[in-house]
Amino acid sequence: MTSTEETAAPRRLGALRAFARLPRVMQLLVLTQLAFNIGFYMVLPYLATHLTENLALAGAVVGLVLGLRTFSQQGLFVVGGTLTDRIGAKPVVLAGCALRVAGFVLLGLAESLPAVLAGAVLTGFAAALFSPAVESSLAREAGEQAEAGGPTRADVFAMLAISGQVGTVVGPLVGTALLLVGFQLSCLVAAAVFVLIGLGHLRWLPRRPPQHAGEPVLAGWAEVVRNRRFMAFAAGYSGYLLCYNQLYLALPAELRRATGDQAALGWLFVLASVMVITGQMAATRWGRRIGAARAIVLGFGLMTGSFLTVAAAVLLPDSTADMPLWPAVTMVVLLTAGEMLAVPVAQDLVPRLAGERRLGVYFGVLSSAGGLAVLIGSTVVGALLDPAVAAPAVPWLVLAGVPAASALIIGLLARRGSLTASPGRSRDGLRA
Asked: Distance (Å, rounded) from C-alpha 200 to C-alpha 202?
C-alpha cells in the first residue's frame, strides 16, 4: 500500500474524529489553544477602543501600542523558539502563562501611556514564549504521526486553527458581557484564565528533553539566516500578520466610519470564527490538492481583495447607503478565507524548508518577520486612518498593496522551485 493510500482515510475524517485519533499530548496542545484564545480575545478586540475613548490616546499612538504588542509577541518569537530548542517546551510555556497574567493585570490597571506600553509588551512577549513551544512541539509530533498513517501535518495545524477560532468566538462574547462592568474587569478575568492554563500545563504537559541543549545560543539563528530560501519565504509570508492585525485596528475604524459605532465588531469576529470552525479542514485539504504555493498565493489574493473592497466603498459612499455594513462584512469574509487557505499549508512548509531541524527557531523567525511587519505597518496605518493625515481611501489602498506584494514574492519562489526542493540545495541554487 502506498503512503497516499495509507493516509487517505485519516485525511477524509472530520475535524472532531481526526482530533479524537490524535495522541493525548497532541490533543493537549490543540486544546490549550482554545483556552489561550478565550482569555486573549476577552481583551484584544476592545483594546483600541479603550485606548481611544477611555485614555484619549491619538490614532497614531494607538497604532504604536498595538504594533508594539504584536512585535513583542511575533517579533520576539525567535527568543521563545530558541529557549524551546535549548531548555524544552514545558518551562517556556509556563513562563509565558505567568507573563501573560502580569501583562493583563497591568493593562487593566494602567492609566498612563508608559503603563499601557509595559502591559502591551508583557502580554506580547508572553505569547512569544508560549506559541513557538506549542507550534514546534505540534509540528514534530504531527510529523511522526503522519509517517505512521495519521492525519497530515497540515491537517493538524488546521485543527489548531479551529481550536483557536472556537476560543475567538467565545472570548469576544465573554469580553462584551464583562465590558458592561468595565475594561478592567475583562483584563482581570482574562488574567485568571491564564492562571488556569498555566496550572493545566504544569499538571499535564510532559517534559520532553530539549533537542539542542548546550549548543551556542546563536548557532540556531545563524543556521536559519543562512537558509536563504526560508528567509525569502518568511519575508513574503510576513505580510499575512499585518493583514490579520487589521481586524483590531482598521476594522473598528471602518465600522465607526460606516455606522458611527463599533456595535457590530463582536459579531464580525464571530463570523470569522464560524468560517474557520466550519470550513478550515475543507479549505486546507483543497489547498493541498492545488499545491501549497498556489494556495498561499490565492490566499494573499483574497486578502488583497478584502482591502480593495473597503477602498471602493470609501471612494463610492453612495454604494453603501442602504447597507453600510457590507464593506466590513466583505472584508472579514475575504480576509478570513485567505487566512484559511494560506496559513496551514504555509506552516506545513516550515519544517520542510527547515530540514526538520531547529523547529523552535524556524517558527520563531517566521513569526518575528511578521511582527516586524506589524510594528512598522500598524504605526503607518494608524496614522493614515486619521482623516487629518490622509484621504479616507489611502490606508485601504496601502493595505491592499501588502498582500499583493506577498503573493508576488511567494509566486516567484514557487516558480524558481524554492518551495519544493529538498533540504540542502534547491533547484535555483539557493543554499538551504
From this structure: 5
